[in-house]
Amino acid sequence: MSERIESLLAQMTLEEKAGQLNFPVGDLFVTGPAMITAESAEFDDRIRNGTITGLFNIHGAKYTARLQRIAVEESRLKIPLLIGADVIHGFQTMFPIPLAEAASWDIEAIEESARIAARESTAVGINFNFAPMVDIARDARWGRSAEGAGEDPFYGSLVGAARIRGFQGDDLSKPYTVAACVKHIAAYGAAEGGREYNTVDMSERRLREVYLPPYKAAIDAGAATVMTSFNEFDGVPVTASKFLLQDILREEWGFNGMVVSDWASVPEMVIHGSANDTCDAAKQAIEGGTDMDMMGEAFIEHIPQLVQDGKVSMETVDHAVRNVLRLKEKLGLFDDPFRYSDEKREKTELRSRKHLSAAHDMARKSIVLLKNQNQILPLAKEGKSIALIGQLAENSAEMNGCWAYFAKPYHPISFLTGIKEKAPALTINYAEGYHLYNETTRYFDEAIEVAQNSDILVVAVGEGAVMNGEAASRAEIGLPGNQLSLLKELKRLRKPIIALVSCGRGIAIPWLAENADAILVNWALGSEAGRAVADVLFGDYNPSGKLPVTFPRSVGQAPIYYGSRTTGRPYDGDYSEPKSERIYTSKYRDEKNSPLFPFGFGLSYSTFRYSNLQISQEQITAEDRLRVFVDVENAGEVAGEEVVQFYIRDMVGSVTRPVKELKGFKKVKLQSREKQTIEFSLGANDLSFYRRDMTWGYEEGEFEVMIGGSSESVLTTKFNLIS
Ligand code: BGC
Known about the structure:
This protein is an alpha/beta fold. The chain is globular and about 75 Å long. Residues 31-32, 86, 130, 183, 262-263, 470 line the site of beta-D-glucopyranose.
């Protein structure tokens, strides 16, 4: 209990209380349908009369300081403002999109990236960041796959917690830390058909086992706020879900921070068909556990009246207001409302050399090498000429990726620039090749001519920045437009093809897998994209990324993820087997079950050999810890890094268990010919799950241990858990 907050509460009118729960977007840009189109002058008035708690998606040290001044000098209660924003992967120094960063499997680097985003955004007045998104994404059609850490709850939890630590540091009141917002609770990534904002419905078991862990991990890491999701869950729009927002979040997990709705998700309950009107929606939302109404104008409009009519209790409103004021207090805003609006830092920190260098490093770590036939990569910096083809190779803006509203389109280093910078002696012939956003074949001839005159074809294909992220679900998840037709034309020239693939999801690229000589997945790498790609292409950096999502063969496989169940009629063969015995099994008639590239997969210029998998004992009790050892050797000629992955399978359970569950990983650097013994350990808690009666715990029996460099290539052994 804070005296300051209690004394404020005692002085506040109902209208002022509702004002603290009302969070509209500012005047710089909007990311959803606008409810009000206010001019700056109108914002000034709203701040003066205390009907807004702050503004979001605005920035600028001077501008935000001016607004804070109005709040603390001209409003009756002098309550400072929250200034929010979506700083998803960097403010102006753009880091790779979150899914790309997850491919680095480098938790410290991910934390550092969030720390830098916090430093830059707090310099310009932002104190409340709508990140990280920790929604598990198993359906590549869902565009927001790009914003999270992929498909795995264990790994997603580690990444989510790292991002919280990075944004918030150890003290929210410091001028360079920002309040994080875990979003979007809950299970938003499981939208039916992968279609944005669509219905979500699943068993509580799946919810708890797969979708909730990353939110829980983020809250355990100290996340100050939580954002509700747009979707309904079990028939109730989440913004009013007592089950999620109170029973689980507050009671089970002990969360005592602030819950903000997503953009207009309060009034949207009327459209969902679960509220009669916005007044009813406001009542349901605040009683459900949403403290703050983002962009809905429903709380400010209706809460005073609802309280006066005795329909919502003052206690409910005070609880929400306390959560908001406590956040402002933790941010140190009452002591110094200007601490986040620092013109000096704004000048020196944005895109500082140090930040760009960290972004460069992160970008290299995020690249995943999927194919490298005959070791065509790395390329030599002299000699053979290169045709660099594709709009994505030259366009800087696309490198910023989704959620890059604060970034400048001309800032990022394009592949063309990065390659030229790296290999000035090389002949590089660039051609646009295709247009990202239409189907013209106008540029084909030029590209073919350029290819004819070059030795090696480096073709940049994949998604443009707006093809993933929010409101960017795709029904086809392959190469967009006519990129594939162009590739087929180029293939006829019988020259080596190196594909650079931009994407924010598990993109379906079966043709490339078959026909390209090398494939690098470069997602959207941010400010230093071109330099990072050039480092890998020419061997100045040995690729070490691994896929945090499964890459499907085709859209029909979605959702596809490594931790599936076996079913009663599993099929893991291929189509060369006799049909007759295989008909009534779990498979497609026209597609394999296996992914194109599995979770955890990624090559290196080194070759890693796994051997000698050992366990400390063949039987353990719930009190023991099993130790697991494996030798990993770099059998290649160059030093490299490998992500050693540790999976288990519970062979028999009171409910069926996934065929594999990630339980640990280590990223190790090995010199050429170096061998290291890597150790993992696990105990009963790592073997626990929601049993048939929904209690959490382990069951005795046999477990398989699997260790390898991807979820598919693994050494295995077994042990028993006994009483
Ligand atoms: C998104 C949120 C975002 C908010 C504010 C919504 O459309 O779903 O993730 O934080 O807009 O921009």
